[in-house]
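Q: Predict the assembly, please.
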Amino acid sequence: MESERIYLNSHSIRWSERAQSVLLGGVNSPSRSYKAVGGQAPVTIACAQGAYLYDVDGQRYIDYLAAFGPVIAGHGHPHIAAAVTAAYEEGSLIGAPTPWETLYAERLRMAIPELTRLRFVNSGTEAMMTIIRVSRAYTGRTKVLKCAGCYHGHSDLVLVAAGSGPSSLGIPDSAGVPESIARDVITIPYNDVAALHDAMARYGTELACVMTEPVVGNFGIVEPSPGYLQALRDACDASGALLIYDEVITAFRFRFGAVRHDEVKPDLMALGKIIGGGLPIGAYGGRQDIMEQVAPLGPAYQAGTMAGNPVSLRAGMACLDLLEAPGTYERLATTAKTLADAVRSSAQRHHLTVQVNRYGGAFAAYFTELPVTDYEGAKRADGRLFALFFHALRERGVMIAPSKYEAWFTTLAHSDDDIAVTLAIIDDSLAQVARHA
Ligand SMILES: Cc1ncc(COP(=O)(O)O)c(C=O)c1O
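A: Predicted assembly structure:
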């Protein structure tokens, strides 16, 4: 009976009201609000452990939000917790070089050899913002090219057609970004080689860089079509623009290292999320001659009081220890496949049309008839049905991101029992969506 499912979230509502009276909009990042799924008070989480979130009303959720991707080992993993405690006790912030920075940089370069030189920052936004500056410094050019729907953080230049967060809130281009800046951003549809060639013919010699997510994680999950990344590489080589991979979601999510689609390598790459083991981090790096543009070696300035802090670095290294174990990525992918297949088959059983895109340990379900290969396709997905699905899952104890543009992420903490419970909840939830479709 649906009436049995009515979820008592009175404490969450009270916390949300209290939050709104002091925190702007009640949240510290707009994607955490439920604006895209009906505007209710978001669930307030009291604590998280392993595969579960526990809210302030005592409800438990199996967590596939994974904090929008980083929490790949689950919450509060003892190996990461021990590293964090040790790091804090030995000095959480020094303001001088520490061995940890070098050790972690060496380890990342071992996994991603094209990171000839790299630097740690505090967020994915910072990493991408700096990459653009460095690209401009290296090429002496101003314009940048991005793919519609790819999100590269919230710095001015990349908030044009910026995917998940802004799209969910109906903010395609942010207020406060001057037109003079937006004019320097050329946007093309993802996976559209003809549009790429047109844009390169027109702007190629003015472009400092071409940015992409090598596998998209910001309008669901979308794989590059065969040859697409090579087409980007060739276009950059022909025009002198730098090829930038934003691997903030993808690095260490799908394999131990960066995405290796078609073996196409970028000139520079941004990292974040998983490499912090659940703590704030970002990193950028790539070709030595380009990175040498950055101070203190070169004229492009970038700095950070918190950058390279030992707590984030040691949490990240501990997380990589866990990810390096044999079978990790097979397990993450198998879990995601089981769930993705279940969404497909349950939807069919309940006469709902759903497209499910899965790549490794992440997938997205779109309520739409046509396959989703670009942002326009994702936009066509039915937001009302997604909202029904989101709330049906939530009421039954499964948490995903509150936006049709976000993915489900699997973690090392999900047990066979969690998966079995989730499969039943998916089916029950889609049955409810069908009743209201
Ligand atoms: C691909 C990508 N790049 C950059 C960012 C920005 O990272 P941060 O939120 O750490 O600033 C995100 C965040 O979701 C992202 O998904």
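The CA atoms of residues 211 and 244 lie 5 Å apart. Confidence is low (pLDDT under 50) at residues 1-6.
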